[in-house]
Structure formats: C-alpha cells, structure tokens
Records
---
Amino acid sequence: MTKKVFWADPYKTSLSTTVTSVSGPDITLSETIFFAFSGGQESDAGTIEDHVVSAAQKQGQEIVYTLADDHGLVTGQSVFVQIDWVRRYRLMRLHFAAELVLELFYKKLSGVSKVGAHIAQDKARIDFAWPESIAPLLPSMASDANSIIAADLEIKTAFDDEPNERRYWEISGFSRVPCGGTHVKRTGEIGTIKLKRNNKGRGNERVEIYLAS
Ligand SMILES: [Zn+2]
C-alpha cells in the first residue's frame, strides 16, 4: 500500500520514492505526495521521473498512476515525483472553503442534505436538495465563512481510524468532520471567498465557491 505523505505533509511538492509495481502504463509507488481524486477533490497534476501523470486513481488503499505507454520504469526503481503546486494549493484552499460553507449550511439550514460536490482549480461547488432558493442566505453565509477565515483558526487533521485510513479535520466551534482530502493548516490561508447561487432545477440548489485571489 502506498504511504500517503500528502496527509502528514500536504505542503510537500516533490518526493524521492520507489516504484512498487508496473502493469503496462500503470504504476504504484511506495510513498506518494500525488493526490488521487476522492471526496470531490480533483487529482493533482505532475510528473513521476519526468513522465507526465495522465491519471491518478484510488483502488482501495492503493493509488495507481497512469503514465505514457513507453515510460520504461521498472519495479524497484527510484523515482522523483513532482506535483503542480499552484494547482494543488488552489485545490486545498477551495476544498476547505467548500467544507466550511457546507458546515455552515448544515448549521443554518436544518434538514438540508448535500447531493454532490466538486472541487476544481478555479472553483468549487456543492449541490443541495432544498425546495427554495438559497440566494437570500448567501450574503450571511459568505460573511460567516469570511469571519472564520479572517480569524485564522488552526485546522487540525488526524486519523481516527488509521488501519482503514479514515481521517478528520476539526476547527474551533465545529464538530469533527470526516475527510480524506488534503487540508491547509490555517483558515487564513484560504483568503476571502465569494459565493454564487446556481439553480440546477426544482429542489436542487447549487452554491459555487470562488477565491478572491
Ligand atoms: Zn477535507
């Protein structure tokens, strides 16, 4: 199983490690900093020994990286992994912004349920099952989220079940939230956010989350 260094050190942008298996274009690594799509957060972009990673997929507790067919890497080989940090840092900031907004919705809108979420590099979105427009709520949601961001709270992350790789994050004033994504260390790193409603149809409300910078 790949050791996920992106949890212990989400700010690490390069890593020397070893290939543990090769199957055609697909390889696995003994350790990794390269996040694979899960919980709505998109995969990192980057290279393994200068080969561009075209896909990163979770398979159980393993992560499989797809390279070009002619990569030529072999099991046991030492490799250098690099990720696109500009992309990852935006994904981390938007990921936490989305989680914060979601928790505020749960606090303020009794009975609301999340039906989907996606974190990309330019924006995040959360879809809710809710019978009315969320537009009137957004100014106070944004204001509350931006206050928590401005307070620059510590974001604690840890395992609550290490063998099964279950992790959580926690900030002051909120319950623990289960999440296996990558997290910034403090809320202040997110910077000011903006919220926008996007009506997806009857009973389905979408909030889009943008970073001011
Ligand atoms: Zn998270």
---
Amino acid sequence: MRWASAILFAALAAAQTRQVALTFDDAPRGGDSPSGRQLTATLTLTQELIRQLDQIPATIFANPGQARELSEEGVDQILRLWHDSGFTLGNHTFSHADLNKIPLAEYQAEILRAEPALRRGRGGAPSRYFRHTFLRTGSNGEIRDALTAFLTEHKLIAAPVTMDGSDWLFARVYATWARATADPAGFRRRYLDYLDQQISYAEQAALALFQRPIAHILLLHVNQLNADSMPDLLALLARRGYSVIALEQALRDAAYQSRDDYAGPEGLSWLRRWAYTRSIPLPPEPVEPADILSAYRKQR
Ligand SMILES: [Zn+2]
C-alpha cells in the first residue's frame, strides 16, 4: 500500500506541476454578431471576460485599428480596462494584417502603428510581447528572418502557441447555430471536448519532443463563446492538473529556446515547428467536428 500511495502522490505532484499560460487575441472585440461591433457590446464582453478571469494571469493581444466601428476613445477605454484590471497587453498589429498578403515593410509598419494606442492603454509603457497574426511568421526564410530581426530591434518578444482549440471557428458558429438549435450549453460542451483533445495532443507532442511536460501557451480569442465557457474551461484545465501562469513565466521554459527552422505560409503551432526542425514525426492534429466545420464554411 505504501508503494501504491507513494506512486499516487508522485503522479498527483507531477499532474499539479502542469502549467499553461492563457493568451487572448484580437481585442478589442464584442462578439461575432454585427451588433457585437459596437462599443456597448465590446465593453460588456470585455467586462464579462475580466470578471471570469478574476486573479488569473492572461496576456491580451490587441489590434487597436481592427474594430473600425469603435472610435479611438472607445478603443482606448477597452485597452485601459484590460490593463487596469491587471492583464498584460501585447501587440497583434494595428488592423490584424496578414503577413502572407502584404509586403514585410507594410507588416512592420502595422506593428509600429499599433503602439501608440497600446502605450496609452498601459499608461505609456511600450509592448513587450508580439503575437503573429494567423500565427504566420513569413512565407520564406528571408521574410521570417527579417521579421525576427525587426522584433528584436524593437524589443518585442514573439509569443509562441502550443495549444489551440480553434475557438475562433467554434465562436463564429456559436453566434448563430447553437442559438438556432436552442442548445448553447451542448455546443459549449462540444467546444470544450475538442479543446480537451487538443490539450491531450499538445501534451503528447511535447513528450515526443522534450521527453517531459512543458509549460504550454494556449491560444484563445476575445469572443462570446469564451466568455460563456470560461468557468468550465478553467475547470477543465484544473481537472487536467494545470495551474495558470503568466506568459513571462511560461517563456522561461527551456522549450522556448528551441530552434525553429520552419519557413512557409502555414500558421503552425510551435510544437509542429520544432518537430519540423528536428524531423520528429507528429501525428496529425485532431480535426474539428465535421458538422461544425461545415456550418462555419457556410457562414463565410
Ligand atoms: Zn488574431
């Protein structure tokens, strides 16, 4: 029995040391319906997420110029609200520019153009973190290396992603389909089931690459689905033994010093980039449920 309980305690201790940092992209946003673009809806969604994330560290990657329906004052109000509630604000370009579609110089200008609003949001401090839009880091080696050098020059740390539950896709469908079928709770369970599968996948991929659990970085977005799912999402992470840590702390994991030689158009998870670099085969990632994927495609 002693052995059994020693093993059990060791397993519990290992489970409890699992760590994940939460990142929310595309702020300020107010939801996926047309009315969600207005300031009131944006404020409400922001406040809901902030309330749910009470005392939980998270990094919010913002595009100050994406929400065209909001005035500059409106954007400032939302960014200040995140910052004043204790969250870290990161740069996600001014208007969610796509590096695969515009010249590098324009993309770099987009990064710089986001800074004045972000600095106002933080009471003057510059950004420390940058998140590549669509996780696209450069369609060839030349662009990728030039952007990396640009980020270093501007003291911006790129924030990788190792866990991704396609919440943006589920959220788009949630706005209409789940309400039409009058079962939003059932839809949210399916979203979290898929996230659960992606967490398992990320854990297995990390073990294949590093032979140990790593501190993960979860990609989420500011959307109504996450606001409505947050208590259950946090419970899911806790059930799987995760404590939520700050991005800064996650990045101290040596895994994030790994070489990344991937240069191409795809917006890959960093686990896949490291696997590519070291020629380690990973199984394909879990795919989203077919009916939700097709509902998403019909909406586009
Ligand atoms: Zn984004």
---
Amino acid sequence: MTPPESLVPPLLLRSVRIVPVGAVAAPRELVDLRVRAGVVTEVAARLRPVPDEQVHEAEGRWAIPGLWDHHVHLAQWADTLARVDMSGTASPQDVLDRLAAHLGRLPTDDRSVVVGFGHRSALWTTAPTVAALDAVSGDRPVILVSGDGHHGWLDSAALRLMGLPPTDGPVVENDWYPVFARLSTLPTAPGARETAYRYAVQRASALGIVGVGDMEFGPEIGRWRERWAAGVTSLRVRQATYLDGLDAVLAEGLRSGDDLCDSGGLVQMGPLKIISDGSLNTRSAWCHEPYAGSHGGENPCGWPNFTEGELREAFTRARAGGLRIAIHAIGDAAIGQALDTFAATGAVGGIEHAQLVTHADVARMAALGISASVQPAHLLDDRDVAASCWPDRQERCYPFRSMLDAGVALRLGSDAPISPLDPWLAMAAAVHRSADERPPWTPAEGITAAEALAASTDGQPTIGPGSRADLVLLDADPLAAADSTEQAAAHLRRMPVAATFLCGRQVHPTP
Ligand SMILES: [Zn+2]
C-alpha cells in the first residue's frame, strides 16, 4: 500500500543526527537520508542528490520517527480549537487583537461563523461595541460568548445571521439565551468543519504528530472519507468504531488496518472501542475496593458497563471480523474483567487509560500481549482526586514504570480535548509526574525521556533503512542529559519542532 505519488515525493534529507529510539543504536556521525515511495531507503554520510529529488538541508538537526497520539477525539479537538479562547482578556481591545490573530489564520475565502468564548467584561473600563467588532471581522459572522454565558457580543453579520435587530452593544440575558441555545447548531457554513480540521491537523503537524488513533464518536468513518477527498491528507489516522457502528463495519468487511479511502494506507480502520467503566472524577471507574468516603452508599466501588457475557460476545464478533479491541478500562476491576475477556476470546488489542492496575494484572497484560494506551497528562489533574478517592492505592495509579518493566507495550496519548493534543506534554508528564512545584506523584512509576519517546512513535524504532519516512526534525536533542526529572520534563515541554515529514512529504512548516 503506497499513497498516491504526489503524496510521496522523492526526498534527500541532508545532515541529520539520528536520535536512538528503543533498543536500536543510532549512527554517531551526521548522516543523510534518502526517501523513496514513503520509505527511508538509504542512510549514509554525504549521499549524492539525484535528479527530481527534493533536497532538504537539516543542518545537523536531530531526527526522530514521527510522533503519534494514540487516543484522540479529533472532531471535538477541532471544535475546541475552532472556538477562539478569550479567557484572560482585560479589555475589548484585547479581545479584538486576539480575534484578529485568529482570523488571520483562516483562509480568506472561508466565511464560516467564528465563535469565541471566555471574555469577562465586568471590570472593563471601555464598552464593547458592535462597530468595533465589525471593524475587525468585516462581513464574517462573529459571536463572542462571555465567560459566564450571560451575554454575547455579536458583529452585524452575526446579528443578521441569527435574525436579531441591529444594536450597538452586546446581546444580554433574555435576548441572548435563545441565540446561545442555537450555537451548537453552528458552524453551518459549508467548509467550516474542514477548516477546523485543517487547523487541528496543522497544529498537530507543528508538534511533530504524524498519526492519531481517532476515538471520535459518530459516523466518523464516512467523515474521514470525505475529509480525505477534500484534501485533509497530512495525518495518518486509525478510526475506531463503537458498538453502535459495529454491524455496519462488519457488513462492509472492514478489518483493522484496512484502507478506508484509497489513501495508500494513511487512513485506516482502527479498533472496536468499548467503554467498559466510568471515570475517577465521577467515582464510576470500577474498582476492587470502595472509593474512600463512599460510606457504603450505592456502587461504592464504581460499576461495570457490561456483563461478562456481553463483553465476551462483542470481543468474539470483533475478532471474527478482524478487528482489534480498544477497551476503556480505568478501575482495577474493569481492567481485570477486560483481561479475562481477552484471555477467553483470544481477541487482540489494548486497554485505554489503565489508571489503576493490580500488580497481578500488570503481569497478565504482558503475558497476554495487551498494550496500554495511557494519557500521562491526566495524572497532572488526577493526583489530588486520586489522593482523596484512592488514598490507599496511589502507588498502583498510572503504573508506567511497572508496565514497562513487565514488558507491556506502552502507547502515549492525550484523549484530546480532555488534555491538549500535545505529545511533548504527554512525554513530560510521564517523566516528571508533577505539573507544579510539588515533587512528582509516586515517582517510582516515572519513566525516562527515552522510554517516553519510544512510547510515542507507534512502535517505530530508530530511523534506518526500511523505516517509514515519517520524520521529525528537532532543534534540540530530546534525550539531552538532565540533572533531574524536572529538568528533563521542562526540556521536553519546550522542544522546538523544526519540520515534520509524512511519507517524505513536508507537512510542517507547510511549503
Ligand atoms: Zn477518549
């Protein structure tokens, strides 16, 4: 499977320092990489350019395999990015400056509605006016929702669009609420969704992301076919289906890894995703022991969403249809149930989240070959909640070190929009389990920068002949020696990405 020729240009990448990933050693000297049909074919010092080959001078930058976010909800993330964040603005001018910067990033022929959110006008000394907004937005409808949801600052185009009479200032309270309620039906303009997608994909490329496990709900298989046809071609995608879409997927004969749209393998069928328990924050993740402070109330241990029989049937159908399984399991009882089901059915796949795991189940995951798809940035938010809900079992939370040592394949991700789609944030959180000045949370479960990087490349090792030509050039060595985990994490957080290539095609910065 090779993507269309225009998407896999011949490339010579000159003077890179290859970063070792996993157990495979990297050359010590500067080398050149030759790429053909999306694959690295030669790695050697001073390769000669040949005709029709694009030459990119890497000037000694560090090269790593393209990064993956193994668990995202890309449509929701695109929506999140599409809403202009107005929090922390101190004046109408602040808001207008931020809006102008956002509009400058959108294609000029796109006239979709722009929605901003989060300004707080109570302390402003100048009044927001429709005229001032019009001066920035032109004829594009703009709706700025206040942080408390009690008013909207609309430009003239948006007032017309929403059927409101002309006015000088924000639309407030009872005039505003019917408009607010209709926002979820926006953006309705053709192309708005694609614009949001393109921007989300661009942002991902700028961070070195070349692929995602897309766990979005809904008819996303069809939507990815549309997006591919519309030219969203800068990202590898494995699109999951949920149980409600399983019949259609099986009827079409789609197996995990199958191409969804003649994309040469870039847009693939992903796993069957099953949500088998709840979450820590709603105390619904299913655990062996009661949550602290549950006082024997209803469901003191959380609860499972499926009986053993139901899970077994779903796993069996998926396996027969050639689908992998991605099972959301956060509590230790849910993880135990998932592993029982993998063992009983012979299905293959991974556990999503795996936030609280028994020692025995860590070993069982390794023995069964079940991977762990984890979101390290969640632990930054969860440590305090875990300390209050699971005070007696914190050392079994987010057990990255234990899983790696046992031989479990670790895959990092963000679950965006729950945490930002940012692989460097995920790696930093896995290395230094703290977001503030406090020492790391259960530091024994921290992993090294090298291990975090190896868990972020979809299993791709050190770049060499035969590697996917998904390549990221960095202005710094991600594995530079550090005095502490705090320093290593800070270094990862600031990692400057110079360029990203997908199948040898430069996708960032866009040429
Ligand atoms: Zn998710």
---
Amino acid sequence: MLTAMGDVMRHCYAKGWITTRDGNISLCKKAGKYLYITPSGFRKTIVHPEQIVKLEIVADPSTSERRPRVLDQQRPSGELWMHWNIQRGTPRTRAVVHIHPTHVVAAIYRGFDLQKICADFPEISRYTKVGPSVPPLPALSREFADATADCLGVHQDGSVDYDIVGQANHGVCSVGPDPWSAYEHIERLDHICEIVLKSGVSPGVGMFDAVLR
Ligand SMILES: [Zn+2]
C-alpha cells in the first residue's frame, strides 16, 4: 500500500490534478502504531515507499491524547493536521488523499454546490458520498484542517459520514480503505464536475430546469 501512495500521486500528476510538489496522501493501518504520509515539498512524481515519512503515534504526555510524533529529521506534509484529524481513531485501514483536481476546483469557484450537482448523477451518487464544501481558508492552517474534518463528518469513533469534500479555491480531501479507493472518489467527482461545466448550465440551475426554461 505504501507503493500505491506514490503511484496515486504520479497518476494525479499525469491527469494535471497537481503540480509537481502539490498534494499529499496518508495511510493508517488497522490497529497500526504509525501514520504514513508523503514528505513536504518533495516532487510527488518520484515518491516511492522509501520517501514516505513514517510517524510513530504516541500519547501526548500533557493531555494523553494520541498524536503523531515528528522527529527532528522528519519532514512530513505541511497538511499533517488535516490528515491526522481524519486518521485519528480510524477503526480500520484508511487512506486520505488531498489533491487539486481541476474541474472540481473550477466548479466550486464558479459557484456550484457539489452535493446538489452530484444528486443529478447516479454514476457518482451510488458509489461516492460527497460532503459539503470547505470554505476558502488558508492552506496548511489548523482552521483548514478542522473545517475539512467537520465537512467530512468525522466522528469520535473514527467513522466518517462522507467519502470526499471539495475545498474552495484549493482542492479536495478524499477517504478510502486504500489510496486507489480514495482516488476513485476523486475521479468520479472530477468527471461529474467536468460534465456540468461543459454542459454550460449556470450554478443554481439544474439540467432539467435549463431545458424547461
Ligand atoms: Zn493543497
């Protein structure tokens, strides 16, 4: 699965969904002691298992809350908190993928509500639960990390309500049992957003509303 983390990044780069150093992926194995995450600022096209940062999950001595421990020489993704918010307490193996898929970002920027447009397309609504979009917030901030977890509907017991959320003026965050499953949610959502954008309908006007006008 560590190999899949790099493979997914290369695939996203080939699709034009990230520039070379963008995007990040994490993985927590079932009952595992480590959080695996892509390195910060590294060219994602050459991420292989040996470049993945392995962070031990330890209890914070002051709060006894579990958190990943970053050693001096380790350079995990700057979005570590976004990943940990979603990974903490996961009852099973979980991959979290954050990238910048062009059509999803464009659709949100144009004013589309992702949940509304996806309701029109069984291709996505059958397999992928899309959550409310995260408002524009600074990348790498705690606010951004917390809002992403809120929109995904992360619960104390580690369960999540949605598979993917859009992040306004930025990207998406997707969750799955492995990196490729999380990738599939992104691919489906980007495909629908591309269709909607190419259809020429405006935000707030459904496809059938446009025909009836
Ligand atoms: Zn990003």
